[in-house]
Amino acid sequence: MVSRNSFKFVMLPPQTATTRGWARRLAEAMPEVRVVVAEDAETAAREIVDAEAAFGWLGKELLTKATSLRWLQAPQAAPAAGYYYPELIAHPVCVTNFREIFNDHIGAHILAFVLAFARGLHVFIPQQLRREWKKSPLEAGDVVHLPEATALVVGVGGIGAEAARLLAAFGVTVLATDARRAAAPEGVTELHPPDALDDLLPRADFVVLTVPHTPATEGFFDRARFQRMKRTAFFINIGRGMTTRLDDLVAALKAGEIAGAALDVFEQEPLPREHPLWAMPNVLLTPHMAGHGPYLDERRFEIMADNCRAFGAGRPLRNQVDKASWF
User: How far apart are CA 276 and CA 285, in angstroms?
Assistant: First the structure.
């Protein structure tokens, strides 16, 4: 007899050792779920027809064949542009993602950038490489006293909220904007809607972007916004590269409109070797690895397994996405 909670769950290609392992674990833990690993496009096209659930990148052609699909687990916290195309947005399928798994790792990365700028490491590390012993005079303003500093966190989802908590522990006053939160999370002194951003920028010593790439955020940090920041302020982006216009950032840095920038994400990745950001003395760069750390694959599996149990039981799914907003 087939359980009333049974359903078909297709793992879409491409496959890796990790996704095959997840499929085996799901099948063993939940025998009522028929887990199908589609190794190629032909298999995916055949198996998606009667599948109620799927994992991975679902293109338009597969979507037209998916006559029973009700849940799609996205393979990332914020899939690249193109994942949420108009037909998928209009489709009744519920999409979930892997947000929240990077909170501690990226929160620590943000704090590392803030502390580096606050203590002048962007000055001293190049000096070390030159074997140069040179102390900066205090009057040069190379130290930011964190209990007297203000940070503006643009987007306080899981990552932004963790960054706010850590910053507040160092005495930083944290302002924030967010499109969804109604109440300020721990560490946030003031929570504002996104349209308050321009009014908040002049108050911040550190501006931290954690927002995803969406139609509303693409290129929204431009020259005009850099010009609203303090000339002594630092800009940090660990969200998505397409939110920030790098040509405008370079122009703002060259003009002295902001004090420095730290980036983990870029409009073009890898950042071209000839790009001027590489050689700017007040810039810190990491190669899109702020989220790196232990336990990530296990956290992904736990979300997928939780959602499999919830889907079979008819309960609300974890990490549901507003498809039109891409997050």
Answer: 12
Which phi and psi (to 5°) does residue 10 adopt? -105, 125
CATH number corresponding to 103-285: 3.40.50.720
Average pLDDT along the chain: 96
Residue of 180, 186, 269, 292 with catalytic role: 269
Query: CA dist 182 to 10, 191, 225, Å?
Result: 36, 8, 25
CATH number of 7-100+294-325: 3.40.50.720
119-165 tens-digit pLDDT: 999 999 999 999 999 987 655 567 899 999 999 999 999 999 999 99
- Please say if 32 is a catalytic residue: no
**Catalytic site residue from 288, 299, 302, 309:** 288
Exactly one of 109, 122, 240, 318 is catalytic; name it. Answer: 240
Tokens describing residue 146: 């964190």
Q: Confidence class of residue 2 from pLDDT cuts 50, 70 and 90?
A: very low
pLDDT for residue 241? 97
* Whole-number pLDDT of residue 138: 55
Q: Is 245 a catalytic residue?
A: no
Residues of the chain with CATH 3.40.50.720: 7-100+294-325, 103-285
292 is catalytic: no
Tokens of 234: 């630092």
Q: What is the Cα–Cα distance from 63 to 14, expressed in whole angstroms? A: 17
